[in-house]
Write a structure and sequence with these properties.
heterodimer, A: 546 residues, mainly alpha, 20 helices, globular, B: alpha/beta, 6-stranded mixed β-sheet, 13 helices, 37% helix
């Protein structure tokens, strides 16, 4: 269905142009790109729209009573919640619309922006890297055509998701005008980051580096708006205005309904496209602007572990930095939560003691960190499958290297990296909380809370290993599972009962808010081990691709 | 134990495609064995079954006396593999890759490695993402040839090398064979196989269609004879009725014909009786042998019938068959 939605965009009239000028052939390239993208776009659109629609309906059900909504507004205004939510428009009269814009919007913007970033890298850098671009350029195709077609294809994908999202929002009771603005805000934020990635794509030679740069931009944008919204509610901090998400959240759909902040985003897109186009003109096919350096003539790569680390190093360090930085931020914000509850005696009556509120907030954040670590684990196992498809696994498996050792090394490294990330994040979070709350026991509590999520991440690793070992062609399922675990982990309270039955975090004790449950931790760990073992056994029995 | 590789009745299907359809392959220990067939005939699939990367649906295979599917690790200590399309880790340099692969094998001879790097003129400090296809292939060749192994499995190892490097490759393979190593060499460069191989297997649509020494295979193909004669027309009349003589043609005093092996005696006798001024006999090249096996496909493609001096696909004079062969190789 989304494929057909995409079709009208495929005929912008450029298809029939004569093969002259820098844009010759753009139409045909765009059609090709849209055709290869139709399934990916369709899945993203349906997933984003359906999750949003279900969440909005659930919010409306759960918070039918205005008093409940106001209690939630008070809670969400706390710094810790603000960092993960929004600028807090309409907290005085916290309607379902205000709630949607404040709490859900960011989590719709982030995935759509990720989609845009990945699409740009896929269209702009990957074809050049694997030589497809040379074939295309040798045809009667203009110099700028591949870049323009790639950008238009990514933009079309984002627009399609925006339109489907809007359609889903219009089925709810939300104000249609606000829904249009919300969908537009989602689209603009994604376009800013996608076009920023287009600039990055011209600097590097590789699709992976370019998508990594794009994701780094995205991460910085999330952090900037978090800092900004904590420092100045209702988008009054300068920090907020440094972030594309800040601009898009400043539109305040369903409350102020203002369109002008999107002008900032549109201007940023225009600047990015102009810069990318200028860079394209300066460089040769197959090169980036950052030069390739020569390397050592002899190897220091020690065996499979060394190779896996060399391949995964950048990924581990960047995901790890993100997890640890978030942990640090949460830890430092802990005192703000306590002060906030302390200032509002009414709130304490509803929410309980300040300590409990802090513990509940920490329990949620720890799962959030674990979900990010789980996403890293997904990329690590996905990389193993990519190695196989590229034919590099065959080069190793033709040596005296068993399948179990080949896949097992990569799984083990991912497990260790994820565990270290979470433990360091827990330690940093605990240290921050210990300093701001003046309570040294927080270090041990939060380190423990982070440690308890590790078996949950290992289950995701197990699922990923099992998919690669048993159903290698369905590697996309890993991402579906990561998205599921993330959604129920963050919004479990909003979703129907039992919808989190397949998430390991539903069974692990929510430390520090709940007491430790060794049996649950043990059972989840055993499950993770069984899944990994099944995946490794599957990898031993099946054909190697590539 | 005389066979380094003994495969019998191999079947491998991918969905509806039958990539191997009862393939037999016997490679004797210590020989260089040419493995020929056009794209899609099943050469790479066979090699991947031999490596234990793919499991055959039927048939049995023995490699260095073991089962490659059940016991790959032990067998792989004794063999090295050069893929046709070499994929390397983009962030590692050529030198790092060679050393890594050697280390995973359990160590390689540094002297041999450096000598091979020098002979193949490989710049080992370049990162793999910047290598051309030929240079990636050199990395795989150095890593494989520097290893002390009994068996080399090579899948179109020279497809990206320039002719100079192709010559270096031939030298190196000859040295490996002289050391007593067994080589299975799949290739589209028929001259290379002809220069190196002791025996050859030609496969087609997943089956071996002929196998044997080059002499054996040549015996199955006609020799082209061009003779300048005092009485060319007389010789034509004398040979017209001889079994195994084909495509007789006379231009002025020159007689051209194609003869099966057993008919050569009669041909030479008849020529001698009609005043030989000059004679050229082309023994069939490997190309002729190969093209004979694929004659009907060439006819379908319209190759061979269009050649001016080619009477039929079975007896192509070498010059035109060269053109025809490259036509099929290039997809």
């Amino acid at each position: 269905m989304t494929a057909t939605t995409a079709r009208p965009h495929a005929h912008p009239g450029a298809g029939g142009t004569t093969p002259h000028g820098p844009l010759a052939g753009t139409g045909r390239l765009l059609r090709l790109a849209l055709r290869t993208d139709r399934w990916t776009t369709g899945v993203w659109a349906v997933a984003v729209a359906a999750t949003t629609q279900v969440s909005v309906v659930a919010l409306a059900d759960l918070y039918a009573d205005p008093a409940q909504r106001q209690a939630r507004a008070a809670l969400i205004a706390s710094p810790a919640a603000t960092a993960l939510a929004g600028p807090g428009f309409g907290l005085d009269d916290y309607t379902i619309g205000a709630m949607t814009a404040n709490e859900l919007a960011l989590w719709v913007m982030v995935p759509v922006a990720i989609m845009g970033v990945l699409a740009v890298s896929r269209h702009l850098r990957a074809p050049e890297e694997d030589g497809r671009l040379e074939i295309v350029r040798s045809q009667p195709v203009g110099r700028a055509a591949p870049v323009v077609a790639g950008l238009l294809a990514a933009a079309t994908g984002v627009l399609v998701v925006g339109v489907v999202l809007l359609a889903a929002l219009l089925t709810t009771d939300l104000d249609p005008a606000g829904s249009v603005l919300l969908a537009a805000s989602v689209v603009v934020a994604a376009l800013v980051l996608a076009s920023g990635t287009a600039v990055a794509a011209q600097l590097t030679t590789h699709a992976r580096t370019s998508s990594a740069l794009g994701m780094a931009l995205l991460g910085v944008a999330v952090v900037l708006r978090a800092v900004g919204d904590v420092r100045g509610p209702r988008s009054t901090s300068a920090w907020t205005w440094l972030s594309p998400f800040g601009w898009s959240q400043a539109t305040a759909p369903y409350t102020l309904d203002r369109w002008w902040p999107l002008a900032v985003g549109v201007a940023a897109v225009a600047v990015n496209v102009a810069v990318a186009a200028a860079l394209v003109r300066r460089r040769d096919v197959g090169t980036g602007l950052l030069p390739e350096r020569r390397g050592p003539a002899h190897g220091r790569v020690r065996g499979l572990v060394g190779l896996t680390w060399r391949r995964q190093r950048t990924s581990v360090l960047s995901w790890g930095a993100g997890v640890v930085a978030t942990g640090a931020l949460v830890g430092v914000l802990a005192s703000a939560v306590v002060d906030f509850v302390g200032d509002e005696p009414d709130l304490a009556a509803i929410l309980g003691e300040a300590d409990d509120v802090v513990a509940a907030a920490f329990a949620l954040y720890v799962v959030f960190l674990a979900v990010v670590a789980a996403a890293y684990v997904g990329t690590a196992v996905g990389a193993a499958r990519a190695e196989e498809r590229a034919g590099r696994a065959a080069a190793l498996l033709a040596l005296p290297v068993s399948r179990v050792r080949w896949l097992g090394t990569q799984v083990a490294l991912a497990a260790v990296a994820a565990a270290v990330m979470l433990l360091v994040a827990g330690l940093v979070m605990g240290a921050g909380a210990a300093v701001t709350l003046d309570d040294a026991s927080q270090v041990g509590r939060l380190l423990g809370a982070a440690a308890v999520t590790v078996p949950g991440v290992l289950v995701v690793l197990g699922v990923a290993t099992a998919v690669v070992g048993l159903l290698p062609r369905a590697t996309g399922l890993v991402w579906l599972y990561v998205a599921y675990v993330g959604t129920v982990g963050m919004f479990g309270g909003l979703l129907p009962d039992g919808s989190d039955a397949l998430s390991p975090f539903a069974y692990l004790p929510a430390l520090p808010a709940e007491p430790m449950a060794w049996d649950a931790v043990g059972a989840v760990t055993v499950l993770a081990a069984l899944l990994v073992a099944a995946g490794l056994a599957g990898a031993r029995r099946r054909d190697v691709d590539g | 134990m005389t066979d380094a590789i003994a495969a019998h009745g191999l079947v491998k299907t991918f969905g509806r495609t039958r990539a191997l359809d009862g393939l037999d392959l016997h490679v004797r220990t210590g020989e260089v064995h040419g493995f020929l067939g056009p794209n899609g005939a099943g050469k790479s699939t066979t090699i991947r079954v031999l490596l234990g990367l793919l499991r055959a649906d039927a048939g049995d295979v023995s490699l260095l006396g073991g089962d490659p599917w059940r016991d790959p690790v032990a067998l792989h200590r004794r063999l090295a593999y050069v893929p046709g399309d070499v994929a390397l880790w983009p962030q590692l340099t050529g030198g790092e890759t060679i050393d890594l692969l050697g280390r995973l094998r359990g160590g390689l001879d540094p002297g041999r490695r450096d000598a091979l790097v020098e002979r193949f003129e490989l710049d080992t400090r370049v990162r793999a993402r910047a290598y051309s296809k030929g240079n990636r292939q050199k990395v795989a060749l150095v890593a494989a040839l520097a290893a002390d192994v009994d068996l080399l499995l090579m899948d179109e190892p020279t497809s990206g090398l320039d002719p100079l490097m192709g010559a270096v490759f031939q030298d190196v393979v000859r040295e490996a064979a002289a050391d007593g190593r067994t080589v299975l060499l799949s290739s589209h460069v028929l001259a290379e196989v002809e220069a190196l191989a002791d025996r050859v297997t030609i496969i087609r649509r997943g089956r071996a269609v002929s196998t044997g020494t080059l002499d054996d295979l040549r015996g199955l193909t006609r020799t082209t004879v061009v003779a300048g004669l005092a009485d060319a027309a007389g010789a034509r009349d004398a040979l017209a009725a001889v079994d195994g003589v084909h495509h007789l043609r006379v231009d002025d005093a020159r007689l051209t014909l194609a003869a099966d092996g057993p008919a050569l005696d009669a041909v030479l006798a008849a020529l001698a009786a009609h005043g030989v001024r000059s004679v050229v006999a082309h023994p069939p090249t490997l190309e002729d042998v190969f093209l004979r096996e694929y004659g009907d496909e060439l006819a379908t493609l319209g190759v061979g019938t269009s050649g001016p001096a080619t009477p039929g696909p079975a007896t192509p004079p070498p010059a035109t068959s060269g053109g025809a062969a490259s036509g099929t190789e290039e997809r």
